[in-house]
Write a structure and sequence with these properties.
- The protein is mainly α.
- The chain contains 15 helices and no strands.
- The longest helix is centred in the middle third of the chain and has 46 residues.
- The chain is globular and about 65 Å long.
Length: 443
């Protein structure tokens, strides 16, 4: 049975917004400000990052409409590349999903620790302990069954929505503190281009998610018309929101405070609403973090299941507990990867650098498949139709996107060689692992 298109323009716009806006905007701006050095570089990085992300989203939109298959972003690699290279990319994605979830856990722990724990635990060790505790508690709940995981997700979502509504209502009350503006005049002789390149690492981490438009190629009504409109509308909303909140950070807290703060949203709320606002924002963000981690624990083992069905991973990854419907091995494997990432990488910035090195490689490889699909369509004599979205300004849009992502990879390599090295080792380890697993799975 084929998939029937159900998504309209508004549906896809909201999906794109949901895919992109996550927890990164509450932590990444501080790292971007540190790397940028000046407000001019800071805001240029966010604007340029948004523009390049639109280029990427449009590229993946065409790929998705040309390869309308359910089952995930990873399938295009096996369709367009040699199985060994496809496995190396997919294996890397398996690892970075765990690292991304850990990065979110660290952000949440950083926000909640000042609210719940004594001063002695207001350090990196305390943050790691809280992150580990959150991961293990959610792991235990999901291990009890997919239904328990879903119930946990529902409760977390309802609490998060309620907290955010209360937080939004506080906007209509009088501020408890006067806004503070501490502007930075920049640095003499500052290398604008170099600072911009390094700043883009965290910017792209925060804009990430648009690539998943590739998964909806078969679900969209009139994709040739609705796909580009939804992407421009969705990414436009994201860019406006990101610029607005960054401008709020800058105007209220001052650029120097933004550079050194790890709890930007809480400090912003505290400056307006006092201690109550600080606590409320911290709790809301932590609830959001728990929801994201729980979603990761529910969804990533299912990705392993699909990959095992395609013989990319061993059969044990699709083994289910008949009573609870839990992939006990897949879930435990994912949690183990999360804990290993936390131990090896430790800080949010290192996790971002590590994730962006591998993620950039996979995004460049994924974007390059548009040339494969176009070439095959030409060879088959296929003509354009209203079921396929065709990117304008081809091939310049995908080439620009790929070039900037390669620059990001280079900047990670230069600025954080250790994290880039971890990424390289994991990617290259996929080659011998591919041949080993091929023998194991075929037996």
């Amino acid at each position: 049975m084929s998939i029937k298109p159900k998504l309209g323009l508004f549906d896809l716009t909201m999906i794109i917004v949901s895919l992109v806006i996550g927890i990164g905007i509450f932590r990444s701006p501080a790292i971007v400000a540190q790397k940028a050095g000046t407000p001019a570089v800071f805001f240029t990085a966010w604007i340029l990052g948004g523009f390049i992300s639109i280029c990427g989203a449009l590229t993946f939109a065409e790929i998705g409409s040309r390869f309308p298959t359910a089952g995930g972003f990873y399938r295009i690699f096996s369709y367009c590349y040699h199985p060994a290279y496809a496995f190396m990319l997919n294996w890397s994605l398996v690892i970075i999903n765990a690292a991304s979830a850990v990065g979110v856990a660290i952000v949440g722990a950083g926000y909640i620790n000042p609210v719940l724990l004594p001063l002695a635990y207001q350090n990196d060790t305390g943050i790691k302990l809280t992150a580990v505790a959150a991961i293990l508690i959610l792991y235990g709940l999901n291990f009890m069954g997919i239904k328990m995981g879903a119930r946990t997700q529902n409760i977390l979502s309802l609490i998060k929505i309620a907290m955010l509504i209360v937080f939004c209502c506080a906007l209509f009350g009088p501020p408890h503190a006067s806004p503070v503006s501490v502007l930075s005049d920049g640095q003499g002789g500052f290398d604008f281009i170099k600072a911009l390149g390094v700043s883009l690492i965290s910017v792209f981490f925060t804009y990430g998610g648009y690539q998943n438009t590739i998964n909806f190629g078969a679900d969209i009504r009139q994709p040739a018309r609705n796909m580009p409109k939804a992407i421009f509308a969705g990414m436009g909303i994201v860019i406006i929101l990101y610029l607005a909140i960054n401008f709020a950070y800058y105007s209220v807290l001052g650029f120097e405070t933004v550079q050194h703060s790890k709890l930007l949203a809480a400090e912003l709320a505290g400056s307006f609403f006092g201690p109550v606002g600080y606590t409320l924002a911290s709790l809301a963000i932590f609830i959001s973090v728990l929801g994201f981690i729980n979603t990761s624990l529910m969804s990533n083992p299912r990705i392993y299941y699909a990959m095992a069905e395609d013989h990319i991973l061993p059969p044990v990854f699709k083994k289910l507990n008949e009573r609870t419907m839990t992939q006990e091995f897949g879930l435990s494997f994912f949690v183990a990867l999360m804990l290993i990432s936390l131990v090896l990488l430790g800080t949010f910035e290192k996790i971002v650098n590590y994730v962006m090195f591998i993620d950039s490689l996979s995004l460049v490889s994924a974007a390059a498949t548009i040339f494969v699909f176009r070439r095959r369509a030409k060879a088959d004599g296929a003509t354009a139709n209203n079921e396929i979205f065709q990117l304008r300004f081809y091939p310049w849009v995908p080439l620009l996107f790929m070039l900037v992502l390669l620059i990001v990879m280079f900047n990670v390599l230069v600025s954080d060689t250790q994290s880039a090295l971890y990424g390289c080792i994991i990617f290259l380890a996929g080659y011998p692992l591919y041949w080993i697993l091929r023998k194991v799975v075929s037996q």
